[in-house]
Amino acid sequence: MTKTLHYIFDPLCGWCYGAAAAVKAVDKAPNVALRLLPSGLFAAVGARPMDEDFAAYAWSNDQRIAGLTGQRFSERYRNEVLADRQQRFDSGPATLALSAVSLSSPAHELEALEAIQQARYVEGQDITRPDTLARLLKGLGLEAAAAGLLHSGAELLAANRARIESAQTLLSQFGARGVPSFVLESDGRRELLQSSALYADPQAFAAQIAKA
């Protein structure tokens, strides 16, 4: 019996970046289908300017995540992303890019998410820019998704809204607080997962889901 793990995230969420190893382990687990659902948490009304106070808060939080998970937050990210007062904290473009991948090459959406996170947190790229995102997608061989992102037609915008609405519905249904959140669906039943192994032991987290 195949189970579905609904992974609710935001591409600008540092804790979601910290959960990357666990998500990748689940993606490789037998009899588990991974469904990515961007929440839109930091898009639209959730977006904000990158001011001094918020940048300092973000960097402090990032260091906690790095210490817990081993994920890298580079000085280049600190100097070229957090210190850039023209670059908003806005996950809308990256969310739309992932929805473009989900339409044209759904099997590669997790790969695209990882590339976007790497570009921001390690390489210090501005992933709030559609041209940056399109270049990343093309580098993965996802030309159709890149073209779809730059065109942003009605089909893509509708699919993006539907994915965000699905994520928000699940969060509301289970009273989940923020992202990342994981909802496991098996035999017609859904449950919100709680696991201390998510950051400390990604393989144990994947094993927990496989055995659930």
From TrEMBL:
Gene3D superfamilies: Glutaredoxin. Residues 8-188 form the DSBA-like thioredoxin domain. It holds the Pfam family DSBA. CDD domains: DsbA_FrnE_like. Transmembrane segments: none annotated. This is DsbA family protein. The lineage of its organism: Bacteria, Pseudomonadati, Pseudomonadota, Betaproteobacteria, Burkholderiales.
